[in-house]
Amino acid sequence: MGVVSATDIAGSVAKQLADVEQANAEAVRAAAELVLGVIRADALVYTAGAGHSLAAVAETFYRAGGLACVYPLYHPELLPLHGAVHSTKTERRSGLAEEVLAERAPGPDDVLVVFSTSGVNPYPVELCIAARERGAAVIAVTSRASVAAAPRRSSSTLVEQGTVVLDSLVVPGDASYPPDAPRTAPLSTVVNAFLWNLVLAEVYDRGTAEGLELPLWRSSNVVGGDEANAALLAKYGEIVPQLR
């Protein structure tokens, strides 16, 4: 058996990201416009996911360089660290979305971003349905190929519910290596973060050109970071309890 080259792995990941950027150019612009609408309306971007897609939710929240107007939707039973098998069962449980939205739900000025590679389980799909019923737009970050291949477990899919769909191009099963029969090296976490950063960069370029004051966090580990974040914490801490 040959030795795997780190250069080979890096090259395949780089190609995936390049393909994702090209395939989603129009969708990234549309997603950025939805986020800019939130900023103009002084509203919120709600973010959600289950299982390992919660890594993408963490990437959107209280992140250096990230938006402060983010409300993360979360239930501890969805996190594998709190019970791996149970987390899978939880995202398949119908009705959980409304429980999570009971404290605060997106409205017409808000946007919901849902990360789910398979895009078929009740929790992410019902979040989208509930948000759209309340008048909110939905950015679905998923894999069209994975959605098409996955067993249908709810009345709809993330692809069907997304106002805008960002396609990670992740193959069914998520693994990427070896290329001819993937069994390891899952890519969804890397690609989800990349897609979100593409949206943030588009928001920044267009927002600054428009003269918008973008609510962006600074790192608390650089000089002046805490001071720069103080006003954002004072403002959003009142409506985003996870910031307190």
Automatic annotation (TrEMBL):
The record places domain SIS at 35-209
Q: Which InterPro entries match?
A: RpiR-like_SIS, SIS_dom, SIS_dom_sf, SIS_GmhA/DiaA_subfam
Q: Name the domain of life.
A: Bacteria
Please provide the Gene Ontology terms (biological process) for this protein. Answer: carbohydrate derivative metabolic process
The record's PROSITE patterns line, in alphabetical order, gives:
SIS (PS51464)
An example Gene Ontology molecular-function term:
carbohydrate derivative binding
NCBIfam families hit by this protein? PRK02947.1 (NF002805)
This chain belongs to the protein called: SIS domain-containing protein
Q: What is the lineage of its organism?
A: Bacteria, Bacillati, Actinomycetota, Actinomycetes, Pseudonocardiales
